[in-house]
Design a protein that fits this description.
5-stranded parallel β-sheet; Rossmann fold; binds uridine-5'-diphosphate; EC 5.4.99.9; 7-stranded mixed β-sheet; flavin adenine dinucleotide binding; isomerase
């Protein structure tokens, strides 16, 4: 059997391990520097409240890809869950993403869908033809006032820079709707795993040919991988090359944890749009599992900051300076014929869980196809 090394036990690594293990032709070592599997999707029950906590922040599974949805459902039960986010701005609670309720409340109107659409179009900056930045995208599609209220402050806190420095793609993640649909996502399928994400990933890795080593710090290009036929690397691309060309910019988040009796905020996620409030959002995790009963609650204020060397990278900033550094690392990657880079950190892209799974399934299939001819 051929030996394969997988660096990282998040979704990318687990999907590769599962697909290769199922062929019966590979012996797979999975290593992760943390003391748990699941990467940033890791979930764990809080010992005091018994609430299932998303240890690295809220993860709501959503996809329109039927293959991905069917695949993930092989590894656990997903309960229906619709993420309905609220946003507080100047002491008022609004519905997020921007929808007819948000528009009517914000402007003190009672527009129907087409009136609202015309109104918002009249607010939008029609001189912007091809929006490149976050700010241009917002000004064109929702206008200055809604932009300043719901996106400017939040985004500055989240990304630590003016929204004019950020790409339009970040804002394109959020829909704008002219009806009362307040579902945060547009996808066909959405849910939360009944037993958490770590149980799903555990099941993916649960195979006699897969050996997991936790607390193992992989050394990147300095690691001796001579015994392996192939390596799948899902860690940060710059770390693999010992930061030879410099560090890529990431935002990280940290949480302040609170417990209380009963229900703290009545919703899973509430965003705080005002720049003066230092946190971006508050998440109360028992609302991610409305089918469970908990008399107590645990909730977190989420703060964002620049990633330092000891922090866990979360959000790739992808500023111009980062993209130039990335090109240098990517040209090194093309010289490596037995290492595949995949996942959010190894490709330095802002990917969701469903993107990660889709790409890992494709990557595993391509690898198996090529390897069958070797
Ligand atoms: N955003 C914002 N206000 C909000 C929610 C989101 O300005 O109330 C912006 C912010 O820049 C954020 C981006 O939209 O980074 C994408 O939001 P999303 O909810 O997709 O971020 P994630 O859940 O990945 O943190």
């Amino acid at each position: 059997m051929k030996k394969v090394l997988i660096v990282g036990a998040g979704f990318s690594g687990a999907v590769i391990a599962n697909t290769l293990a199922n062929t019966g032709n590979y012996l797979i070592d999975v290593v992760d520097e943390r003391n748990h599997i699941g990467g940033n999707c890791h979930t764990e029950r809080d010992p005091l409240t018994n609430v299932m906590v998303h240890k690295y922040g809220p993860h709501i599974f959503h996809t329109s890809n039927e293959k991905v949805w069917k695949y993930i459902n092989l590894f656990g039960v997903f309960k229906p869950f619709i993420n309905r986010v609220k946003s507080i701005y100047k002491g008022q609670v609004y519905s997020m993403p921007i929808n007819l309720h948000t528009i009517n409340q914000f402007y003190g109107k009672s527009f129907g869908p087409s009136e609202a659409k015309r109104w918002i179009e009249s607010q939008g900056d029609s001189t912007i033809n091809d929006p490149k930045t976050f700010e241009e995208q917002a000004k064109k599609f929702v206008g200055e006032k809604l932009y300043k209220a719901f996106f400017y402050g939040y985004t500055k806190k989240q990304w630590g820079t003016e929204p004019q420095n950020l790409p339009a793609s970040i804002l394109k993640r959020l829909p704008v709707r002219f009806n009362y649909d307040d579902n945060y996502y547009n996808d066909t399928y959405q849910g939360i795993p009944k037993d958490g994400y770590t149980a799903i990933i555990q099941k993916m890795l649960d195979h006699p040919n897969v050996k997991i080593s936790l607390g193992y710090r992989f050394l990147g290009e300095k690691e001796d991988v001579g015994e392996y036929h192939h390596v799948f690397y899902t860690g940060p691309i710059d770390a693999y090359f010992s930061f030879r060309y410099g560090r890529l910019g990431y935002r990280t988040v940290y949480f302040k944890e609170y417990r209380a009796d009963g229900d703290y905020q009545g919703n899973a996620v509430i965003n705080f749009a005002d720049e003066e409030i230092p946190y971006t959002r508050v998440h109360e995790h028992k609302h991610f599992t409305p089918w469970e009963n908990h008399s107590e609650t645990i909730y977190f204020e989420e703060y964002s900051k620049e990633t330092e060397s000891s922090d866990i990278p979360y959000y790739p900033k992808r500023l111009e300076i980062d993209m130039n550094i990335l090109k240098l690392y990517e040209s090194e990657v093309t010289n490596l014929n037995k290492v595949t880079f995949l996942g959010r950190l190894a490709t330095y892209r802002y990917l969701d869980m469903h993107h990660i799974i889709e790409e890992a399934l494709d990557s595993a299939e391509k690898f198996l196809e090529l390897d069958s001819h070797k």
